[in-house]
Amino acid sequence: MIEIEGLTKRFGDHTVLDDVSLTVAPGEILAVVGPSGAGKSTLSRCVSALEQPTRGQVRVDGQDFSRLDGAALRSARRRVGVIFQSAPLLRRRTAAQNVALPLEYLHATPESARERVSTLLERVGLAERADYLPAQLSGGQQQRVGIARALALAPSNLLADEATSGLDPATTTSILHLLDELRTEMGLSIILITHEMDVVREIADSVARLDAGRIAEYGSVSDLLLDPTSSLGHQLLPDRP
Ligand code: ADP
Ligand code: MG
């Protein structure tokens, strides 16, 4: 569960996030949309505790990150899996070795790590590609490895920051539908930063539009679709022939 309350983030005198409040319950997908520079990645970095809020709170599974440090913060961070744009995998490591990375940091035994990695690769549909290097995988397959790696430590929350940009539409759809299945299976709270309005309509429960660091619109996808005055609702409507 992710609870963001009155989050303000400033860099110098530049206010990048201004009093942002959002909630993502277990098993829910919140889509965050908005133009480049709106503050979406900064929001994501505040939730993964890579940035400290200037004001306000981020609570993950009920715990306020800003009150934690050292070992407690490292352990809390494990509850948030992050999928990056273009899945930056280690080039000299196989798919399986990339997925094993977070487990190695935790000093998992080789046997338990092997078992966990094979379960995860199987789940993302890459059991047969375990020993391939990233360069031998397609962009979509690399992103699946990135998802498996993000899930290695069994987080209860997932952040995907434009995780499908650069992928073709069919691959994008299949990756986002994989996330949709995983949130149901694992009860994940997911924040999905994306431009894919078709997919937002299909898989997100709620959607927030950020504009210059403020929440311009926020609501459930079904409410916004029914609201004729909502600009987000219009963007969410399927293209009519
Ligand atoms: P988005 O992901 O929506 O494109 P970002 O969160 O990346 O937006 O950036 C929002 C604004 O914050 C931009 O104007 C960016 O230049 C600024 N910004 C982001 N990170 C930093 C930083 N570490 N220091 C200073 N300014 C930053
Ligand atoms: Mg960004």
UniProtKB/TrEMBL annotation:
Domain of life of the source:
Bacteria
Which stretches make up the ABC transporter domain? 2-237
Do the record's keywords include Protease?
no
Q: Which UniProt keywords apply?
A: Amino-acid transport, ATP-binding, Cell membrane, Membrane, Nucleotide-binding, Translocase, Transport
Under the GO molecular function aspect, what terms does this record hold? ATP binding
Keyword Manganese attached: no
The name on file for this protein is ATP-binding cassette domain-containing protein
Give the species this sequence originates from: Nocardioides daeguensis
